[in-house]
Amino acid sequence: MLIDLAVQNVTKRFKEFIAVDNVSFEVPDGQFFSILGPSGCGKTTLLRMIAGLTEPTEGNIEIRGSSMLGISPNKRPVNLIFQHLALFPMMNVGQNIAFGLKRRGERKAVIEEKVNTILERVDLAGFGEKKIDQLSGGQKQRVAIARCLVLEPAVLLLDEPLGALDLKLREQMKVELKKLQAKVGTTFVYITHDQSEALVMSDHVAVMNRGVFEQIDTPQNLYNDPKTPFVAQFVGDNNTWTGRIQQCHENTAEVQTVEGNLFRTKLRQPMQPGDRVDLFLRPEAMLIQPDAALKELNRFEVVIKDILFDGANSRLLAYPIDADMELLVALPQTRQFDYIRKDDKIEIGWNEMSGICFAKTDDR
User: Which of 55-64, 137-146, 249-258, 311-320 has the highest mean pLDDT?
Assistant: First the structure.
């Protein structure tokens, strides 16, 4: 398996501040790899080191087996797309795409052939003569990507390229980018703070927090099997309780929450009675008015604070009885719960294998 990008024990310090802390990972040829994390976690600094705009304090970066240390940005087989696409408004689409090829000194006939070929690959055939201001936001994105891909980089770096788009176009471009990457086969390394972008488009995602990678995994595993409290909290929505373990049974435990509930749940790591824990539970894992015959469920009552209608993503905002905390409960689209109204009191249930428990951290 060909490895297009290998980052080996890379650290970046700015005086006393460590922006990237001993990060290592590999991206195989043709993969869509995303780095997901909150603002200030170090992801853009890491991308800039790969692009050659910043030198690492320690560690090594290899592209297709060759070290990039000391190699200037223009001599690295990578291209970088920022949120602001920096297309040249005085040039048409074809001239924008041809710009890098002209700087390389390619012959006119070769440039024309390559531009026409890449326009077809990004589904913009016949757009060469169009002016930039005649394009939609999504078309401009594809022109910016085509301008990079025509130079045949080993890796295409994308730094939050959808951030400036409106919500509906952003949703469309997530699918477009995924299809485009699969079609052209170029390795993409994508930076984002938007979990939906990372989960929808990526083959693998690295979740970054305070300069380190907390977990590298498939989108499905990040969502269903988080390895750390940060990943559990950051990837997808979660309800969180704090409590203490009362009893342990192999991979499960009974947790007494500070609100007074006694829940059975699975453990992420071995623990002992008396340990303080954080318990995470997805909104869609909570069953509304569960059948009384389901004896194995954790059950408790809540008061409906509000109904948050959002089509297929509709939720109930609820408060447990006598507890000052908010819970999100997924609202199925079967319309069987249309009778629920604000201030109603209902029962909630969930299976012990749906929750996940971690040792309590003071900095969640």
Answer: 55-64
Query: Is 158:191 a contact under the CB 8 Å cutoff?
Result: yes
* 71-85 pLDDT, tens digit each: 999 899 999 988 777
In three-state secondary structure terms, 177 is: helix
Residues 101-116 pLDDT 10s: 998 899 999 999 999 9
Asked if 245 and 251 touch (Cβ cutoff 8 Å), the reply is: no
Tokens of 345: 């009191």
Give, as one character, the DSSP assignment of residue 313: G
- Per the listing, tokens 């300069």 go with 211
Sole residue written with tokens 């498939």: 218
| Pair 284, 298: CB distance under 8 Å | no
Phi and psi for 280 in degrees, rounded to 5? Answer: -115, 140
Q: What does each C-alpha distance from 324 to 131, 258, 327 come to in angstroms?
A: 57, 11, 10
pTM of the model: 0.89
CB of 153 closer than 8 Å to CB of 74: no
Distance between CA 240 and CA 280 in Å, rounded?
5
Sort strands 356-359 and 298-308 into parallel, antiparallel or unpaired: unpaired
3-state secondary structure 91-145: CEHHHHHHHHHHHHCCCHHHHHHHHHHHHHHCCCCCCCCCEHHHCCHHHHHHHHH
Residue 337's CB is within 10 A of a number of other CB atoms, namely: 16
By CB atoms closer than 10 A (0-12, 13-18, 19+), residue 29 is middle
Instruction: Report the alpha-carbon distance of residue 192 to residue 195 in Å, rounded.
Output: 8
Nearest-angstrom CA–CA distance, 92 and 109: 18
Kindly list the structural domains of the chain, giving each domain's residue range(s) and its CATH number in brackets, ordered by start.
3-228 (3.40.50.300), 237-359 (2.40.50.140)
Contacts of 268 (CB under 8 A, 6+ apart): 227, 356, 357, 358
